[in-house]
Structure formats: structure tokens, C-alpha cells
Amino acid sequence: MSVSKVEILREMEYAVTHIRERVLDEKARGHKVIGCLPILIPEELVHASGAFPVGIWGAERLPIVRAAEYYPPYACSVVQSITELAIAGAYDGLDGVLISCLCDTLKCVTQSFPLTCPSVKPIFVKHPQNHRLEGAVTYFIRELEGVRAQLETLTGRQITEEALCQSIEIYNENRKEMIAFARLLAEKPGLLTCRERHTVIKARYFMRKEEHTRLMRELNGMLRASTAPSFEGIKVYVSGVMLEPSHILDVMDELGYTIVGDELAHESRQFNHLVPEALSQLERLARQVQTYEGEAFLYDPRKTRGERVARAAKEAGADAVLFALMKFCDTDEYDLPWVRCAAQEADLPFLHLELEQTMQSAEPLRTRLQAFAEQLTHTC
Amino acid sequence: MEAHYIGIDIGSTATKLAALSGERALLGTTVVPFGTGTQADQLALETFYRNSRLSPSDCVRTIATGYGRLIFRGADAQVSEISCHAKGLHHFLPQARTIIDVGGQDLKAIQINDRGSVQQFVMNDKCAAGTGRFLEVMSRVMGLEVAELGEYDARATGVETISNTCTVFAESEVISKLSAGVDIANLVAGIHDSVARKITGLTLRMGILPEVALTGGGALNTGLVRALERNLKCGLLLPSLPQFTGAVGAALFALEGRL
Amino acid sequence: MDPCTTDTKTLLKQLTAQYYDDLNHAHERGQKVVWTNGLFPQEFFEAMDIQVAYPENLAATLGAKKGVMPYLEKCEALGYSSDLCSYTRIGLGYIESFDSDILNLPRPDMICNCTNICGLCVKWFECTAKRLDVPYILIDTPYQTEYGPTENDVDYIVSQFQELIRQLELLCGRPFNYKKFRQVLAISRRVAKSWKRATDYVQHSPSPLDGFNLFNYMFLAVVARGKSSTADFYDRLSEEMEEYLREHKSQFKGEQKHRIMWEGIACWPHLAQNYKCLKANDMIVVGGMYPVEWCVDYDQDDVRSLARAYAARPPIGSLTRQTDIRARIMEETRCDGALYHVNRSCKILTFLQAGLRRGIYERNHKPFATFDGDQTDPTTFSPAQFETRVQALRENMEAAKAERGGP
């Protein structure tokens, strides 16, 4: 491993583990900081306002105590941990947050978040479910105009067409590098550990995209130049919302798994779709929603997610499909049988793991992952 | 001097050991009523060798399985309990293709092929419903020992259904029924039915291929067996040594040397 | 049947039978069958003589008549989590066989769904449409994050109506009947007003109307909002209530010591037990969301008003608006307390309930109690817990009254 690659990974690891420090640093420089909750947020608007966008997807292994004031135990752990952190004042330093309404639980978060963080300005992003219709694009453009206006008020800075265009280009560049990164790891399985792969992707949430792109260009160059290791383990394609808590990645690495592709909402679904061209920058952002197909959080009358997962898994050379089911995520719970069915039809072994971000121990997952590995490698 | 292979299954409440000869013959078994984190693994080995003509120096290989397999230092390797139960059960009942393991703390359903290889599996290790724990709680409420449940079930004239799947709510339901003077044998049958429904639900998620075998502590409960056969709508094969399926499977892995 | 003289009990039975008869004979009469959710703009279907089936209603009926377990089990066997809403689990289990002893629905030619009850139904109907291989059309009514629907929301909904019309024309093979549509708008507004008038009788003290009966009466407001016979029925109910008032009678056969708001969907499998327990504690249900929710009235007979009315349904309302509505209901119906159904299946309501309880309590300081239950999954309810909680609520309300020096 070259020193440079270690340094890049270290920098990304630092970004992921020192979020608070980064936020304080940005504020010290006079920048506004805007939190971006799940699932899909037009971060380019935040970027164009000069503010620093920071991802808010909860925290791992956080004991949930006070969130019970708002949510019963059967709300997903991402929302539980976000709420717990909010009540603890972790988000008080933020100037604003963007919250989407893409699932019923998030809809409730649009109502509970302002109560848990009264000092932080909430801005709601209302994606049109009927996204294929022109009326939906018109609608979303107007919604984004509202988001833009609120960001301008918050930051005191006008978001011009040029600034937004530039931000979209920066984000698209980052997306292209990430798509290339994912492809490289599929072509050369085992080149990075599961944890390293995850860290590289997660770092996007805690760095300015241009910084991240700079590092990605170097990293991708190094990965391209590297020879593929001789990999004897299990190549999986991961489906779901999030593959956390991250100690599951260490278990996967120990057991000889590598990730050759994913369609996790937290990971690849953030960058697989480039913002397309259109007449105005807001229209470009609005039309990006139309590029999603088989997206779990958007109306899909033909329900193509299963087939897409199977196809993508095969293209990535996966041995199996791993469905990382976030416990209590209704959206994915409805899709699980369909993704399993499609995987089986494509002769891909399928393992479904139930995860909660708050899990303290990875042991129950270890048993399942180990049994699955034994199932795949045992030639009795 | 007899070369042998050891499989040790370190569960949460008991540790089981099995020894096989090179020709796959069962040379002996031991169970100690202590589980992981209590030195039970060492105790099991000592107890076994004290009561056996075999000598520790003739042990070719040891495989550990079960909850405590990662902590035990005396094994050459560790294999998941899913693979071990599959292999062990297949050894005793080669015609089985679906295995249901009702343990004290968890519940597993495993599908195997004609060579005993795992094809798919499902587990419940979070919720007490469908496990021995549920039966423990309910039997305590009724003032019975878990070991008596089969005998009471045999006297049932009907099944007093318990509708709640949550252990806490079910406990309250059982108490209400007891106060209402419901026949205790029928209530026991109802508790068995509740556990059987949960097990059936989990197993159907995976799919059932005949023949179906039942193992784990639950297999010793004739009432539960009856309720399960009724819910699954098929007969169940029962191994003669249900507690040792995992240990035997581990010993077989030790013998085969591949995992 | 003459709605003016027949009693409402008989009338409801007749109208219910008529509804199912029309539905079951739809295909042989050359009509199309659409499956949809309860608050979908039915006006579009009425205009095209399409028969409409409501899988939520199927679930509720099967729940009430103890016929859900086979479908819940079937759904679980398919690999769906038991965490999911029980209406949807019953629906997904049911479509595997269409073989209930209690109630059956004809197969749909199309599925239509509006997001004004929740977003989870989008996934439910996706699965259903794929399984049954039928087209699935969506009317998306955005979540009201601030207070009510915005003009942008209304524009978006109207644009979706145009696509819906096009799809219905394709389905039926004939142009959309705008003339009938306008007639249906007028009828639907009449239904809304007649429903409101009838359900407002709970505001009387003592109330001639037993609010718990609304779980039954609402059936026509759900499935036949565009028919004059529905308006006639609710008008008849109002007349009956007037008679009761004159004769100092009530549907509630007991002492109306405590007037309560029942918050949430009914526990369909446990209606009898719930009612018996409430009655034993001298509690009459007078407050609840159903009157407001099913009163789909629009300002004018035009499509924008229609869109706004459907967008403004309470389940997708902001917490502030939902609190306002319930506080107003408790005031208008003069509730002494509230009973909250913490419904395992309904996340969009249950996840706001903690904030709702606090907000309402801050305004009126009325005693309240919660209980764990589910709208149709019979295994998620404990009669012992319900009885304990209701008793505690009664004791609270008695103590509050004693403190005020009241009866």
C-alpha cells in the first residue's frame, strides 16, 4: 500500500470521526452550516449559498433514552438516534436543516425536529411522488424556489444561476468519481476492505464535495494502477438503506467478504444519478428526481427495484446479494420479498440481515454472516 | 489408543460435547448445565475424558460451535451453529431437508440438501416468542415445570388459544384464563399452540421441504411436537439425541477437516 | 326502500348489501373495478360508472369478524415483516387466494391510490399491482409540513388529475364524462354536509348519538361518498337523532357520566370488548376524528377546490393543525377526557401522538389515558391492559370533577 493511499484513507476516516470539529471550524470561518437529513436532499443549493452542508443520518451505537418522548420503540433507529442527538443539543450549532418527506417517519420528523431543536431553522423538501409527470417537475421547481429563498434568507447570500450551475457541476464531478470508484472495486475485488470502502463513501457527507473529489481523483488513479489482488472470498452486492453500525463491516472483512457494489440509500443512491441538463438550474435539480428508477422511496408502479438489484449484482460480478434491512423501515420491508425473489430468479444466493443503527454488538450478525459464508463455500 | 474428533457446542445455558471416531461412530457425549463465560467448556472436556476410555492426546481435532465458540481457546476452529446443526441432524436423519431448532433462547429454521449442506436459513434470536424462554415464563405462571408440560398436554381435551404473541401480554392472558378457571391441560395445549404458530410463521418464510425434523430442547416436549405437527400440517422427525445435534455436527466438521 | 321511513339500522344494511351487490356484478355488467384507498377522490370513478373496492375496508371487516389470521400468516410466509401495517398485511395475504368465508372483493382492473392517508400505502399498492399485474395510478397529495396545503400543492394535484382522467378513459374505452362529474361534485358536497350534520349530534349533552356507532355508520362515507343514497341515509340518521332529542332518548343505554374522545382508528377485532368496558365505566365516546376526516367538502364545485379538500385530509396534516383539530373537537363535544389508541400499525399517526397528547393536554388539561393496540392485528392487544387503563382514566376524570365540585 502506497503512503498516499493510506493518507487519503486516513483523511477520510478523520472526516467521518471528527464531524463536530469540522462544523465548529466552518462556523469559525464565518460559514453557515446546514444539516441534511435523509433520504435525498438537493445539497447543491446549500453549496451554492456558500454554506457547509453536513450529513445527518444519526449515530451508531447510541443509547436511546429521551427519544422515547417522541417516538415509540418501533420507529427506525436512524430517526431514533437523530432525535436523541437533537434533544441532547448536538445539532444546536447548526444554522438550519433540510428534511425530506420521503417516508412516513420522516414526515413526522418534519414535525418533531423543530420541537427538539427550536433554534435551528427547518427547511422542508417535498419531493413529488408522481415524479414522471411534467406537473411534478413544475411543482418541484417551485418547491425548490422556496428552499432557495429560505437558504438565501438564512445565509444572507443570493443563490445566483451561475453559482448554482457551478455547484451542480462540482457535485456531478464528485458523482462521476464515485461511480468510477465503485466500478473499480467491482473490477478488482478485495482492493479495499469493506470498512475502507464505506469510509470513502461516508466521507462525502462531512467534506466539501470539491475537497472530496480531489482526494477521489488521486485514489481512483491509484486503484486503477493497482493490480487486482487474488481474492478468494465472497463478493456481495448490498441492497438497503444503510450498512451500519460499522462494526458489521469489520465482521464482514474478518469473514472474507468484499463489497462489489451497492444500492444503499446512504451510499450509492446518493451519487448514481447525475443532475441532468435543463433550461434553468432549478429545473435541472427538479429533473434529477426523474432519473431515478426503481427507487424505494419514490412511487414505482412497475416495481422494478428487484430486477435492477439482480442485474446490477450480476454486472458487478457478485456471488450473492446482501439485503441490509434497517429494522422498522417499512419502505424496505415492503421491497424485501421482491428483491429476494429477483435474486433467486437470477440464481444469486440471498442473505437478509436485520440491522439497527443502535446495535451495540455485532454478534448476532456474525453468526448469520458466518453461516452464509459457510453455506456458499462448503462443497459437501 | 483411539483417534477421535471432538465437537463442543457452547450455548448460553448449557455446554454439550460429542466425540466421533474416524469412522463417524459416536463414541460418547457429555452435557454440563453451564454456558458461555463460565469455564463450562473446560469442565465439559474434563468431565468427558474422566468418564471415557479416550485420552485427550488422541484427539485429532476439535471444533467449537454455539454462542460461546469465539471465546473458547481449546478448539482448532469454530463453525456457526447453523452449519453444525445441519450437519449433525443430517447424520442422524439423512432424509430431512428442513430442520427446526427450538432452543432456550432462540429459534432457527434451516434448509439442507441431500448432502446436508445448508441452502438457506432464518433465525429469531431477539424475541422470546417461539423459544424455550416463552415456555419457561408461561410454565412458571402456571406453577409447572417445563419438563411437565408434555404430560399435561397429553391430557388436553381442547386447545385454549393464546392470541398474544408478545410474551408480556401473553403472560397476562394466561393469568386471566387461570383466574377464569380454564382447564390447565387445555391451557398448556394453548401455550404449545402459540409457540408452534410462531415457529410455523418463521419456517414458512423460508419455505418447507419434506422431511421436516425438529431438534433442540423443544424436541423433548411432546406437547410442542404435537402442536407443531398440527400447525405445519406434516409429521416431524425427531433425532434420538436432540441436544447433541450441534456438537455432533461440529465433530463431523472436525473429522472432515474442510471448514 | 323509502329512506324517509325506514330506520337507519335497516337502511344501512340495505345500502351495504346494495354496494357489495353492485361491486360483485360489476364485471358481468361490463363495468370496471378499481381498488383504491379510503380518501381517494371517488368523484372521478363515480363519473365513469366504475365500481370501487376498498381493501382497507376489507381488512377492517375481516378484522371485526375475526377472519384475518390466515391472511396475516400468509403474508408473513411470503417474507413480509410483521412490523408492517396490518391492513396492508391482510391485503397482501388476501390477494394470494381471494378466498375469505366472510367477505370477498372482485379482482381489480386498475389500482388507484392517493397519498392523503399515508405514504406507506404507495408501497402496499405497488406490491399489490405487481402481484395482480394491473396498472397502478397515483394521486400524490404532499405532506402539509407547515399547516394546510399550499397553492403549489393544489396545482400539482390538479395536474395529476389530468393524467388520472386520461388513464380512466383508456381503462373504460370512452371519454371522461365531465357532465356526470359535475353532478357528482354537487352530490358529494351534499354527502359531506349530511355526514357533518348527523355526526354533530354528539355535541349534545346528553348525546342522542353513541359516538362508538360511528365506526359502523362511517361505512357509506368511506365507500359511497358520491351517491345521493348516502346523503339520504345521513339525513335519515339526523332525523332519528332529532326524534331521540325530542323523546330524551339516546343510543347509549347507560349513564353518560364521562364523555370521551377516542383518538385513532378502531381496534376492529376487539370492538365488543372495547365497548363493553367503556360502558361499564359509564363512558360515552363523543369525540373522534372520523367526522372531520370523512367530511370531504369543497368550497366550490370546481377541480381546484376538490384538490384542496383532498389535500387537506387530517392524517397528513402538520402536528399543529392536528392538535388544533382535536382540541376543537374535544371542546365542541364537551369531552371530559381522552383515550388514545397507540396503534401499532399506523406510524404516521402514532409517531406524532406523543406531541399531540402533550399539545392537547396543554390546552385543556383534561385527563387522558393510552393503550396499546392495533387496527386489525388481534395479537397486539391486551384486554387486561385496556381495562386497567380505562379504569384509571375514569378515576382520573372522577377526581377532576370532584375537584371542580361537579357531579
UniProtKB/TrEMBL annotation, chain A:
Keywords: Iron, Iron-sulfur, Metal-binding. It holds the Pfam family HGD-D. The keyword Iron applies. Gene3D superfamilies: 1.20.1270.370, 3.40.50.11890, 3.40.50.11900. Its cofactor is [4Fe-4S] cluster. The keyword Secreted does not apply. InterPro entries: FldB/FldC_alpha/beta. GO terms for molecular function: hydro-lyase activity; iron-sulfur cluster binding; metal ion binding. Belongs to the FldB/FldC dehydratase alpha/beta subunit family. This is Bcr-type benzoyl-CoA reductase subunit C.
Automatic annotation (TrEMBL), chain B:
Keywords: Iron, Iron-sulfur, Metal-binding. Pfam families: BcrAD_BadFG (PF01869). GO terms for molecular function: iron-sulfur cluster binding; metal ion binding. Its cofactor is [4Fe-4S] cluster. Residues 6-254 form the ATPase BadF/BadG/BcrA/BcrD type domain. SUPFAM superfamilies: Actin-like ATPase domain. Coiled coil: none annotated. NCBIfam families: CoA_E_activ (TIGR00241). This is Putative CoA-substrate-specific enzyme activase. It comes from Intestinimonas butyriciproducens.
TrEMBL record, chain C:
Its cofactor is [4Fe-4S] cluster. GO terms for molecular function: hydro-lyase activity; iron-sulfur cluster binding; metal ion binding. Keywords: Iron, Iron-sulfur, Metal-binding. Belongs to the FldB/FldC dehydratase alpha/beta subunit family. Pfam families: HGD-D (PF06050). This is Benzoyl-CoA reductase/2-hydroxyglutaryl-CoA dehydratase subunit BcrC/BadD/HgdB. It comes from Intestinimonas butyriciproducens. InterPro entries: FldB/FldC_alpha/beta.
